[in-house]
Amino acid sequence: MGSKLKKSGAAATEDLLETLGDFTSKENWDKFFTIRGTNDPFEWYAEWPYLRDPLLSHLPPNADGGDAAPQLLIPGCGNSRLSEHLYDAGYTGLTNIDFSKVVISDMLRRNVRLRPHMRWRVMDMTNMQLEDEIFDAVIDKGGLDALMEPELGPKLGNQYLSEVKRVLKPGGKFLCLTLAESHVLGLLFSKFRLGWKMSVDSIPMKSSNKSSLQTFIVVVEKELSTSVHQITSLLQDSTLHCSSKQASGLHEALENENQLREKYTSSSHILYSPEDLQGELTKLSPGRRFQLTLGGQGCSIFTYHAVVLDAEEHFDSFTYHCGVFIVPKTRSREWLFFSEEGQWMVVRSSKAARLIMVLLDTSHIKASMDEIQKDLSPLVKQLAPAENENGAQIPFMMASEGIKERSIVHQVSSSLTGSIVVEDVVYENVDSEVSNIFPSRELVFRRLVFERAANLVQSEALVKDENSSTKLVSESGRKKTNSSSKSRKSGSRRQSSEARNQFAVYHGYAASSYHTGIISGFMLISSYMESVTSSGKMVKAVIIGLGAGLLPMFLHGCIPFLEMEAVELDPAILDIAKDYFGFVEDNRLKVHVADGVQFVRDFTSSAAGQIQENGTGSECIESPSNGSSRSHASVGARKVDIIIVDVDSSDPSSAMACPAPDFVEESFLETVRDKLSDQGLFVVNLVSRSQTIKDMVRLKMKKVFGHLFCLQLDEDVNEVHFALKSESCIEDSSFPEASLKLDKLFKFKHPEIGQNIINATKKIRRLK
């Protein structure tokens, strides 16, 4: 900006400006004003004759002086005569500030007798020692432009405008005389976007005084709202005395900003700043929700995306006036934390009248939670309601995974599933049932996780030592092997084959509670299963969604008369199941790489060995003796007895994490009913926190199946739904007897494992 000033000033002024160099340096300005003296005022941009009408038209009506006079602030006043002209025009309630003691002393001496009510104070305009909301207008003549030297960045300009917003009364105006350079407009427009009315006009100049640079006036009016207004342009090309580049740049900036503001008015996802909401934050407003950006720009190490929610209930029933809930990056796209409905559920469980939900992202990955909390603490204090002014501590809560230690065993990317991780974890707490069955100080669990839904564990199993038929791996034992066994191959991280052979998953225990829940539903057809096995036949099942293959492997071990066909869309998942979770196929368990919906639709009762289309569209012939199949295939002449759907949604922000929506469409449900045997059972693992979604799924299933049952798991997220095809149905009073029949059909090494399933049958309820 200094170079532009030099172009418009006289030769003597240019020489003096050369001494400034840095327009933000107090020492430089002291030197400048000492050399220039009091009687040689330095006017930036425009003289009073051209400023008089534009300024006075925007100022409040003049009073008779005294306390009733409008209060005006001139920041960075220098030795300009602007405030003197305003005083002489009747505006006696004037306060002038500048960080140069030299110029304030000179201006005070010059005006103390002629203008006794005018105030002069040595003060930094970026840190004003003034009360809140005391001025009717703040008049800036080049001050913002001086602070916004491009090489210095927006920090000082941002601090200055924050102070302007603070000291203005509601309804007050900020009159900014500026050259309207793009970096200055960018800050002005964004800083006064929410809750401010804005207009832009040019300062008229005579053609004889024509300069290569035009001066503009930006007028901003403070509102008590968070509305977004279009910027009013009062510019007329005929009055512009500037280069076409300066004019076109301003027109373009106005057009872009107004387009952005139009999007704000039509969207509910506006990101506020704490400054935008200063008047709104002190009061609790039940049911209010807004999003904002916290930190950055020198006031904190990190920038944060936060959602502020004022609870809907009466405030007397809350434990805290204000609380903070931190959501790690791995969970930030989950429906519970990403959607409005999910966020309100978190509010209700937090017992806080105002909950500040902070969603972490990739910029926070390397920071510890202690560092995050320390950085956030001063930021969230400004968001606390007035009720919290008694100094009560603001509690920090967090969506924790409950994992004590984690080790990545394998990581690969699939074109269908995205990033896939196999990891070994040690939990902070383990269910007492598994601890009693396998007494070990720290049991290790192997998990299959998709990055698209990082907190939804697809599959989970206990890890055991292959050298022992019963010994489960503890953390200390696993560490000794993993420390020297990791290698890189084809861009993914793997354990060595030696480690994979020594440590493997244990298929005799269902680590996932929803697997236990799925199997408990077999109680509903236990009499039918008993009759099938008594006749020497096999119960036939189709499982859509292989995952790590743990459910079919568990069933394979405990129900010897069960013949299964598993369907998996992604061949990479099948490879992982075999390489890292010990999945194997045999004559009772086969896998087809295919689309699950299409597989069921193409399922026929024709004999095995029929030609079918595979997942790639080519044909293959399956022989009953094949060890592995990657095609659509019939399981025999008889219809299927059990169809299980356990497929997650590819959209992590969906309100229904499991199953994918296609598997609960009415057309698919009708196909399932047609493919089931007369006594057949349909099982769906439903994962959703939305009651609306749950009700919708139940309604669709009721239209197709006559008898529905549900098992609500303890986590309050998974629900397993069961549907029976038969018109006649098991009575509720027969559940205990049916559970005993199911228990007798199981073959377990550890009876306690079977007992978990039988206990789950007691929680199954009929949906009416």
Automatic annotation (TrEMBL):
Keyword check for Repressor: no
Renumbered residue ranges of the record's region Disordered: 468-499, 614-634
Entry GO MF terms: S-adenosylmethionine-dependent methyltransferase activity
Domain of life: Eukaryota
CDD domains linked: AdoMet_MTases
Residue stretches making up the Methyltransferase type domain: 75-176
GO biological process: methylation
Segments of skewed composition (Polar residues): 614-632
Stored SUPFAM superfamilies: S-adenosyl-L-methionine-dependent methyltransferases
Keywords tagged on the record: Methyltransferase, Multifunctional enzyme, Transferase
PANTHER family in the record: EEF1A LYSINE AND N-TERMINAL METHYLTRANSFERASE, SAM-DEPENDENT METHYLTRANSFERASE SUPERFAMILY PROTEIN
Similarity comment text for this entry: Belongs to the methyltransferase superfamily.
Record's protein name: Methyltransferase type 11 domain-containing protein
